């Protein structure tokens, strides 16, 4: 165990962990939304993330940008980021919509058992992942360098760069907007009503199918933004990267309290920091092990996660 390495790099491990954790948190929001309403673990959500990440890269390719491109000028950078974010959110939301319509809705109509939903989710995940693998010939796709990784300033001696600010800031902003949408909008009230009691909500005039579709679209849009941020931060994307990232995002959702939106954010940030600390203490090969070990330990003492409040009981 390298305690000197951990303490000497504590600040940098924290900031990079929060940055990666912000991406986990955005993907985790999709898991927790779907589970909060349907009590369904949507394992195909990792491929919803991948759809957005590839859509962002292909959007930049459409503008003539590749992994070797350098973009200068704040106006140009914001334009490329904004357009790619919109396309990525639409692509992921569209993928989530197809999954809900093709894979899950027919099962709901037939009152299929939970095991059927689980097997379908895994099958949809593998099918979509392999489709991207075939389309990209299983080769990595590179993203242009839009945001500089040079330090902007130092906080308590720790360098902070534009990528970290963008990733963490975007995740927090999307979380605030989602929280307001769920707690203040008419559709959000419908989502909470269906999450609490779908049958009673239907008697009150809530269209259950429309609400479920909106949940998939909203969660998909969050995953699309996460895909964009992943491209900006890592700048290399392969078709299979969604599997492990999706598992960690699901872990973050459970860690914070599955079905709890704010818990997903806290769980994602915490997971990113913990796995970075483990890498600094034990070595990078222990990073993934630590991410899942902390979940097991927490659930032994708090099975409902850190916050544990369900979406249906979220307060306005």
TrEMBL record:
Domain of life: Bacteria
MF GO annotations: L-isoleucine transmembrane transporter activity; L-leucine transmembrane transporter activity; L-phenylalanine transmembrane transporter activity; L-valine transmembrane transporter activity
Keywords attached to this entry: Amino-acid transport, Cell inner membrane, Cell membrane, Membrane, Transmembrane, Transmembrane helix, Transport
Transmembrane regions listed in the UniProt entry: 22-41, 48-65, 77-103, 115-135, 155-182, 211-230, 236-256, 263-283, 289-308
Any one biological process term the GO annotation gives: L-isoleucine import across plasma membrane
Pfam entry (one): BPD_transp_2
Record's bilayer topology term: Multi-pass membrane protein
Subcellular location: Cell membrane
GO cellular component: plasma membrane
Main location class: membrane
Protein family membership: Belongs to the binding-protein-dependent transport system permease family. LivHM subfamily.
Cross-referenced PANTHER family: BRANCHED-CHAIN AMINO ACID TRANSPORT SYSTEM PERMEASE PROTEIN LIVH (PTHR11795), HIGH-AFFINITY BRANCHED-CHAIN AMINO ACID TRANSPORT SYSTEM PERMEASE PROTEIN LIVH (PTHR11795:SF371)
Official protein name in the record: Amino acid/amide ABC transporter membrane protein 1, HAAT family
């Amino acid at each position: 165990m390298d305690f000197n390495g951990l303490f000497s790099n504590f600040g940098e491990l924290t900031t990079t962990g929060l940055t990666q954790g912000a991406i986990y948190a955005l993907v985790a929001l999709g898991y927790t939304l779907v589970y909060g309403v349907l009590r369904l673990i949507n394992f195909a959500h990792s491929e919803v993330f991948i759809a957005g990440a590839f859509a962002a890269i292909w959007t930049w390719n459409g503008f003539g940008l590749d992994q070797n491109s350098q973009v200068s000028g704040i106006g140009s950078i914001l334009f490329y980021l904004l357009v790619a974010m919109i396309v990525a959110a639409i692509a992921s939301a569209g993928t989530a919509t197809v999954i809900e319509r093709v894979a899950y809705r027919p099962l709901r109509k037939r009152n299929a058992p939970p095991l059927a939903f689980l097997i379908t989710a895994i099958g949809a995940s593998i099918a979509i992942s392999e489709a991207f693998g075939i389309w990209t010939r299983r080769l990595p796709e590179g993203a242009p360098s839009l945001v500089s990784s040079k330090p902007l300033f130092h906080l308590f001696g720790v360098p902070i760069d534009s990528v970290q600010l963008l990733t963490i800031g975007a995740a927090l902003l999307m979380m605030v907007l989602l929280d307001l949408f769920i707690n203040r909008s008419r559709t959000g009230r419908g989502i909470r009503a269906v999450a609490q009691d779908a049958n009673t909500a239907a008697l009150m005039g809530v269209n259950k199918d429309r609400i479920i579709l909106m949940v998939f679209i909203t969660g998909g849009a969050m995953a699309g933004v996460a895909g964009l941020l992943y491209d900006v931060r890592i700048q290399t994307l392969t078709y299979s990267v969604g599997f492990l990232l999706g598992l960690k995002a699901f872990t973050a959702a459970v860690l914070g309290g599955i079905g709890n939106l704010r818990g997903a954010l806290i769980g994602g940030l915490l997971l990113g920091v913990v796995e970075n600390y483990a890498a600094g203490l034990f070595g990078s090969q222990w990073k993934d092990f630590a991410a899942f070990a902390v979940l097991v330990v927490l659930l032994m003492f708090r099975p409902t996660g850190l916050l544990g409040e369900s979406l249906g009981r979220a307060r306005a």
